[in-house]
Amino acid sequence: MAYKRQIDRLPIIPADAKEHNVTCHYCIVGCGYKAYTWPMNRQGGTAPGENKFGVDLSEQQYQDTESWYAPSMYNIVKQDGKDVQLVVKPDVNCVVNSGLGSIRGARMAENRPSTVTGTQQQRLSDPKVWRNGVWQPTTWDDALDLVARVTARVVTEGSEDDLVVSMFDHGGSAGGYENTWGTGKLYFESMKIKNCRIHNRPAYNSEVHSTRDMGVGELNYAYKDYELTDTIFMVGANSMETQTNLYLNHMVPGLQNGARFIAVDPRRTLTISSAEQFAGKENVLHLAINEGTDMALFNAILTHIVDNGWTDGDFIANSTFQSGEAVAQDEAHPAGLGSLEYVMETCRTSIEEAAAICGVAAEDIVKAAEWIAKPHDDGSRRKCVTAYEKGIIWGNDNYRTIGALVNIALATGNIGREGGGICRLGGHQEGYYRPSDAHVGRPAEYIDQFLIRGLGGVHHIWACDHYKTTLNASEFKRVHKRRSDMVKDAIDAAAGGTREQVVDAIVGAINAGGLFVVDVDIIHSQIGQNAHVILPACEANEMNLTSMNGERRMRLSERYMDPFGNSRPDCLIAAGVAQNMERVLRDMGHDAYADQFKGYEWQTEEDAFMDGYNKGNPDVTYDRLRAMGNNGVQEPVVGYENGQLVGTERLYSDGTFDRHGRDDRKALFCAAGWRGWQAPGKAREKAAHKFWINNVRANIFWQNQFLDQENDFVQDRFPHPFVEMNPDDMVDLGLNPGDLLEIVNDNGVTQGMAYPTATAKRGQVAMVFGSPAGSQGNVVNPGVNELVLPDYKHCWGDIRKIADATPETRAISFKSKEVAL
Ligand SMILES: Nc1nc2c(c(=O)[nH]1)N[C@H]1C(S)=C(S)[C@@H](COP(=O)(O)OP(=O)(O)OC[C@H]3O[C@@H](n4cnc5c(=O)[nH]c(N)nc54)[C@H](O)[C@@H]3O)O[C@H]1N2
Ligand SMILES: Nc1nc2c(c(=O)[nH]1)N[C@H]1C(S)=C(S)[C@@H](COP(=O)(O)OP(=O)(O)OC[C@H]3O[C@@H](n4cnc5c(=O)[nH]c(N)nc54)[C@H](O)[C@@H]3O)O[C@H]1N2
Ligand code: SF4
Ligand SMILES: [Mo]
């Protein structure tokens, strides 16, 4: 039965349905899918020649048949102006997912906007401009003219530093090589914007500066390394829920081949519970450390490995820097970098010290070190894949903590080898191709604080909603709204005036402290409530889009439907902004500046791709990628031979390291000295409050729920953001399952629903991040590291009940999420 879709049968895909390659545009894994489209008035038949699967569908199909699709994989969409039937189903021939879907990807079809089935009618179809007290729908020309006129006035009367930009830097949904190039060319080539930030952090910087400074790019393995390894060492990640098919299709086979699994996470995750089932409890080690103490653990593991001689001497001698300090600690480097001996002076930590700091048993730390590095009985080295994500990236002392983890992989030579790698698991896919960002500087400006301080006059926002997802969000929202309202009031007061008079009024309000906001999104988001101009973008598959996944596998995900209404690809919106800037600046008499906005004559996203990515990678074209299908090619592409793009399975397989740009191509170790809570305010907050407010993702939700908020399948499951907590803590607070609660601290307040979880430690709750019905970011303090990396994960507050369970929360299941398979 289709979930509330009133469908009791679905059409058979006809044999001649059009077939399109699709890469799931949600998470980093980038699973391969096939989209099939065919006219409304037709469907296939049961005879093998009449259906796409080429099988006799009148016969009972076996359990794991490919000749099947779920209701969530079906919809009716527009293609070349006509309604067509659409099925988007996992591709059994894609090596990434081998036919597996996930609860997110397998809903791609039903999450398409459809005027026939009524799905995703929240999608924006036309530009909107704040006028006459409301958002008036309007044309692109009208909206872009206003954006350009206000932006041009502000950057010419002041400077480009008055334009603040928030922009995606990823692949997949809201990104890709086309769109990062479009926005990158606009802001980094035509202009030199330095007050910019990335969708997920309040500055324009790297999530993983230290590994790069050490020479090790963060996506260096192949997914099949999980199948070839002895040990999977997972830190601060919950891959079953967040990189689902990487876990199911690569890590699980590894576990079934006998690999051991070490998980470092203060919380017992569903990944741990699942790994225990596949590998056996005796092969799974959960180090449930105190929050924020990872660095001490890594240093103790490293020390134990070094002291026992389990290091890889040849690798260290040949591939790593030998003579002491290579890079001194300074403003741009929160730790010194150099040889192993050099960093051991700082990193040396005994098992006992680490056990005390981390709150785990000494013998478990020893066991972890053994599972990672103790040679096999025959003397051969152990292979270990190390993988990490937001538990330490958005964690305590980002630079040093990630550095300490990379130290272990370097010391054991587990990089660039089969069954090795030290990698980010990743969030979105990647798709970064932009002109140099060197003008931004390091440390980069802390943009949220810049805006809060009343600086900047114009704010361009591309595909992010800081209302739900930034830190210190309560304060950010208060100030952003106040500044935006000043401009709205000025526009309202100038109602009926000419365009010039309205622009004058806007600029006047900006000069008085207001902020003019342009929001490029696919829906009218929460931060979009503050916008004066809203520009409708289209998503992947409503345009062609290229991205790479967590093993650098690049694919072309093909357009199979029209953009909704008059929405456009982000790259073409950026081109529209540039063309209008050129025209307006010329009108204003700034000819030389206007000339900088030339070169955007793109008709299609492919033109943007050729202008950007292809210029740096001339072998790679749409046609060649299309021919490589859903298996694509692993970047970097090194040639084109016999009709095939030639890629790179693993980085650093020659034992040389270049991510830091050093001529000696030697990797550096990181002097990761433990210093307790690094970000300002964290230690004080922890001392002042009863609960650690861990914040996490969950399988069913994609990101800030921009498509889920209008989807009853998702909202019926979690009508309010869940706050997992120990049942005894609930008793103390007088909370029943599903009761509404609020979390309070000095930064703000947020609300959620009590979700009893027997495995949750006392005094530790886990709230889903980014919810439209309760932003966890409201209670995260503004503390960041020296390079402006936020520590979202470490936040403490008090909890009180607001209300009894609602009829909706009363109706949901509170059974344990740990399912036995
Ligand atoms: N289903 C789903 N999948 C997604 C996404 C989604 O929204 N939904 N988003 C994608 C994106 S953009 C990203 S960035 C990734 C994130 O992927 P993950 O990093 O795997 O996800 P999170 O749940 O944010 O955090 C992972 C874990 O960090 C732990 N943690 C908290 N504090 C600490 C600590 O001090 N030390 C350690 N070791 N662990 C800690 C939490 O308990 C949590 O289990 O997921 C991607 N995949
Ligand atoms: N407390 C806490 N906060 C966090 C995190 C955490 O773990 N804890 N994690 C951080 C991380 S890793 C991330 S990635 C961020 C996510 O933070 P955001 O990037 O703000 O969240 P998303 O949900 O990815 O937002 C995507 C927005 O883009 C729009 N969109 C989707 N597709 C398109 C498109 O093709 N074009 C355009 N123009 N718009 C589109 C959506 O409607 C939505 O409004 O949150 C960060 N914030
Ligand atoms: S695992 Fe990630 S890429 Fe694969 S189907 Fe799920 S959301 Fe999409
Ligand atoms: Mo992310």
UniProtKB/TrEMBL annotation:
Gene3D superfamilies linked: 2.40.40.20, 3.30.200.200, 3.40.50.740, Dimethylsulfoxide Reductase, domain 2
Alphabetical list of InterPro entries matching this protein: AioA/IdrA_3Fe-4S, AioA/IdrA_lsu, Asp_de-COase-like_dom_sf, MoPterin_dinucl-bd_dom, Mopterin_OxRdtase, Prok_molybdopt-oxidoreductase
Record-annotated Molybdopterin dinucleotide-binding domain positions: 691-782
Matches recorded under PANTHER family: NADH-QUINONE OXIDOREDUCTASE SUBUNIT G (PTHR43105:SF10), RESPIRATORY NITRATE REDUCTASE (PTHR43105)
Recorded GO MF terms: arsenate reductase (azurin) activity; iron-sulfur cluster binding; metal ion binding; molybdopterin cofactor binding; NADH dehydrogenase activity
UniProt cross-references to SUPFAM superfamilies, sorted A to Z: ADC-like (SSF50692), Formate dehydrogenase/DMSO reductase, domains 1-3 (SSF53706)
EC number of this enzyme: 1.20.9.1
Domain Molybdopterin oxidoreductase: 123-578
NCBIfam families: arsenite_ox_L
Domain of life where this protein originates: Bacteria
Domain Arsenite oxidase subunit AioA/Iodate reductase subunit IdrA 3Fe-4S cluster: residue ranges: 24-119
UniProt keyword annotation of Metal-binding present: yes
Entry keywords, A to Z: Iron, Iron-sulfur, Metal-binding, Oxidoreductase
Protein name, UniProt field: Arsenate reductase (Azurin) large subunit
Any Gene Ontology CC annotation: oxidoreductase complex
EC top class, as a word: oxidoreductase
GO BP annotation list: respiratory electron transport chain
The UniProt record lists the keyword Metal-binding: yes
